[in-house]
Amino acid sequence: MEINQKGQAAVTDALFFLMIIISLSVFLYNFANSYGSTVQEQIQNEFQTTFATNSLKTILYTSTSRDPTETIYDPDAEIDYLLALIKEDYADDEKINDREKLVLSNTVSSILAPLADSTDYIFYITVPENKKIVFMFLHLTNFTKTDPGLPGQGFYIYGADPSETHKDYFCGLDNETIGGSTINSDYETVVIKLTRLLANVGPTSSATSAAKLIKIGSDGSFGDFKAQVDLIMWDATWLGETRDRPALLDVSAPHSDWGCVEVSAVTP
Fold first, then answer.
1. 3-class secondary structure per residue, 201-214
2. Comparing C-alpha atoms, which of 194, 176, 178, 61 is closest to residue 122?
3. Of 124, 173, 196, 207, which is most buried with the most CB atoms under 10 A?
4. How close are the terminal C-alpha atoms of the chain, in Å?
5. DSSP conformation class of 4
6. Domain residues for 237?
7. Under a CB-based contact definition with an 8 Å cutoff, are residues 238 and 244 in contact?
């Protein structure tokens, strides 16, 4: 009896030891198998975040000519920061005019051009304390949805429209008339929809900066607004309706909730 008990104990110890060895082997295999991809993902995320941060810095400190008929390369042109012109324009009526919208959007597009083919992004300026959207620029891949016609498959093919691969929008517009239509939006509604959008597009890379806007009162006094500038980027993805969720941003419908209009419809 004692010999049998010792034998059972030895077998049990051997089984526990074998389980430990198997667990360690599986762990080492998974670690070795995913090591390269994990490092690559970390490097890619770091690159995207660094690019977003540097891009935002460049946008905020970009120089432009104060005279729109001159270029920054003209030796006689008066050069200033683009953000300074935006502040001056905002100081009059707490709005950014169409010409300044286009100048700012063109600047953002130029700086983000290296990633624009495969990356969608949103750049916006808000005054959270006053619940106000000052400027919102959205760059999206213009996806098309194609049914391959295979019975019983239940999947679609998504690809960029070859005739117009990307579309740009001004969003968050409130009580502004563009192209004969009046665009309205609500700050809280747009923020909720933006939060939902970013929660569904996958990993994002973002950068945030503080800014100060001013308002000139009727008596000549200055009022300060603590503004926030955000740049958020993500890999281009389908934003329309799927079996799992409604559309995140239906570009085929009037953007009454988002308060959006295509940049191509805005004239300086």
1. CCCEEEEEEEEEEE
2. 194
3. 173
4. 98
5. H
6. 2-265
7. no
Nearest to 119 by CA among 138, 141, 147, 135: 141
Alpha helix (H) residue ranges in the chain? 2-60, 82-93, 98-111, 187-200
Model confidence pLDDT, tens digit, residues 111-153: 999 989 999 999 999 999 999 999 999 999 998 888 777 776 6
Number of domains within the chain: 1
Tokens standing for residue 63? 């120089």
Nearest in space to 122 (alpha carbons), one of 249, 252, 213: 249
The Cα 12–Cα 21 span in angstroms is 14
In angstroms, the CA 139 to CA 113 distance is: 11
- The tokens of 39 are what? 């490092």
pLDDT, one tens digit per residue, over 3-18 is 566 666 666 777 777 8
Q: Which of 57, 42, 83 is nearest to 207 (CA)?
A: 57
Helix (H) or strand (E) holding 65: strand 63-65
- CA-based nearest residue to 197, from 209, 189, 186: 189
Of the candidates 195, 190, 184, which has an alpha carbon nearest to the alpha carbon of residue 131?
Answer: 190
Task: Name residues whose C-beta falls within 8 Å of residue 104's C-beta, 6 or more positions apart in sequence.
Answer: 82, 86, 96, 135, 137
**pTM of the predicted protein model:** 0.79
Q: What is the pLDDT of residue 113?
A: 92
* 243, two tokens: 């079996």
User: How does DSSP classify residue 221?
Assistant: -
How many angstroms separate the CA atoms of 261 and 183, rounded? 8
Say how far residue 119 (Cα) sits from the centre of its chain. 9
